[in-house]
Amino acid sequence: MNTERRISLEPGFVLHRKPYRDTSLLLEVFTGRYGRVGLVAKGARRPRSALKGLLQPFQPLLLSWTGRGELRTLTGAEPAERPLFPAGPALAGGFYLNEVLLRLVERHDPQPDLYPVYARTVSALTRGSDMEWTLRLFERDLLQCLGYGLLLGDEAEGGGPVQSGGRYWYHLERGPVPDQGGGGIPVRGETLLALASGLPPPDPQGRAEAKLLMRNALRLYLGDKPLASRALFRQFAGSKRPQPSGE
């Protein structure tokens, strides 16, 4: 159990907020040194509160809090830099990131490697980067940071490097196995190498294969409960929009 009593100016993001009592907020925030932290922001909903418009998702913050146990008390917050505001379908992508972190990251479990991945991904969504591939790389790095990383550049059980022109069946507990008649998730070698390198696949089939692989990998840990962020993607029906793998 994390026993720090006073934390000052810790970089973080609000993942989720909801009203608490008459004038306060319950927050779930994400930081690198302390992982996910539950905070009570007392009086943050009062009309004249300086925190009222600040404690929003995608705003890089410097957070201070006190207490111990599952729920701590926010004592201060200030902007660390300008807000990051994903727009359109990218906003749904941002809420998808937040929901996945809420589901998979335990409270008070430090995440020094995952925190910069999250910050970088939100920034990329805000800039209008290739949203579909940005989400795939976040999912790849998320699994790696949580200790569930996928074997992408090598064949399972010491079979040698993945071949770009090869065809594989991906077994989530083992890795890619050369095509020998079925079993697992079908994927081409060039798709695995694209995920390993971070460079997007050259064709729609590769993107579809990457999405299918990540969807199945995340399902092992997310379970079968649907993601609420899925509804946001439906609001953009008719527009070209990628959907998260963890649906």
TrEMBL record:
Q: Which family does it belong to?
A: Belongs to the RecO family.
Task: Report the Pfam families cross-referenced here.
Answer: RecO_C, RecO_N
- Recorded name of the encoding gene: recO
Its cellular-component GO annotations read: bacterial nucleoid
Q: List each copy of the DNA replication/recombination mediator RecO N-terminal domain by range.
A: 10-80
- Which organism is this entry from? Thiohalomonas denitrificans
Name the keywords, alphabetized.
DNA damage, DNA recombination, DNA repair
Report the protein's function.
Involved in DNA repair and RecF pathway recombination.
Query: Mind telling me which Gene3D superfamilies this protein's record contains?
Result: Nucleic acid-binding proteins, Recombination protein O, C-terminal domain
Q: Answer yes or no on keyword Cell wall biogenesis/degradation.
A: no
A GO BP entry: DNA recombination
Q: What is this protein called?
A: DNA repair protein RecO
